[in-house]
């Protein structure tokens, strides 16, 4: 055989061998599986939206966990959980809703308080109704606006405060509207459609120049804890517990930034 022909044959065999080796190697590669990001579903009281959204953004960035947030008044959220039987976290505006949820058998664990709901009286600028304290809400001519007692933690708390004054009937006679959130009470008072309202202290944080804020006597005021709870329906209890611990450790500083009392 000619030497050139022999050389060409050897080169061809070498190239063919390398190609077969490469093909064999490729056939052994296993496609990478892309795992779906871990997700938590959290039901959060509407009045807690700003601090919780802030905390969740940081938590997601730190852990890579996606936290889906559903905001509404605490009572509506509890009914939603009880109906759908889904979710991992329940964070209402007050401990009383967690206690009620416990009775329904939907709560697993509870941590907190993360912060406190502190009721205050608000009036339009200039205080046209001349309200100086909680008992003045019983005066003739007062037009009182409060959050709904069945839907919101602060509304439920307001009635407890009224009962302590001994003038509950008179105060309740002056209620002209029960609204679905403290934020709506604030908006109505700013517009002058009532001359007194009950909200949470943090609701006044951004609009102090538009209203008068009147503290409630500590002897009758009802300051309520804001907890974070895990649900019995959680499919990732370890992750839910991690999120709760994060809220307990980091929540107070962030809640304080948004005007909530934390002590």
UniProtKB/TrEMBL annotation:
One Pfam family cited in the UniProt record for this chain: SBP_bac_11
Keywords: Metal-binding, Molybdenum, Signal
Keyword Metal-binding among UniProt keywords: yes
InterPro entries: ModA, ModA/WtpA
Single biological process term from Gene Ontology: molybdate ion transport
GO molecular function, one term: molybdate ion binding
Top-rank taxon: Bacteria
PROSITE patterns: PROKAR_LIPOPROTEIN
The UniProt record lists the keyword Zinc: no
Amino-acid positions noted as binding molybdate in the UniProt annotation, renumbered to this chain: 74
Family: Belongs to the bacterial solute-binding protein ModA family.
Name this protein carries in UniProt: Molybdenum ABC transporter, periplasmic molybdenum-binding protein ModA (TC 3.A.1.8.1)
Species of origin: Sporomusa ovata
């Amino acid at each position: 055989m000619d030497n050139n022909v022999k050389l060409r044959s050897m080169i061809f065999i070498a190239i063919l061998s390398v190609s077969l080796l490469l093909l064999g190697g490729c056939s052994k590669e296993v496609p990478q599986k892309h795992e779906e990001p871990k997700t938590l579903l959290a039901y959060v009281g509407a009045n807690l939206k700003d601090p919780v959204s802030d905390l969740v953004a940081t938590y997601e960035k730190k852990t890579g966990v996606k936290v889906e947030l559903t905001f509404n008044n605490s009572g509506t959220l509890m009914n939603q959980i009880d109906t759908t039987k889904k979710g991992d976290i329940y964070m209402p505006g007050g401990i009383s809703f967690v206690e009620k949820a416990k009775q329904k058998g939907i709560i697993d664990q509870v941590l907190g308080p993360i912060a406190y709901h502190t009721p205050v009286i608000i009036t339009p600028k200039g205080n046209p109704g001349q309200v100086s304290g909680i008992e003045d809400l019983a005066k003739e001519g007062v037009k009182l606006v409060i959050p709904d007692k069945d839907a919101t933690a602060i509304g439920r708390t307001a009635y407890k405060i009224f009962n302590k004054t001994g003038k509950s009937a008179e105060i309740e006679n002056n209620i002209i509207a029960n609204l679905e959130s403290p934020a709506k009470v604030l908006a109505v008072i700013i517009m002058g459609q009532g001359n007194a309202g009950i909200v949470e202290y943090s609701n006044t944080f951004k609009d102090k120049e538009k209203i008068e804020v009147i503290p409630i006597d500590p002897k009758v005021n009802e300051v309520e804890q804001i907890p974070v709870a895990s649900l019995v329906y959680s499919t990732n209890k370890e992750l839910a517990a991690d999120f709760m611990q994060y809220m307990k450790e980091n929540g107070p500083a962030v809640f304080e930034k948004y005007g909530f009392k934390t002590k």
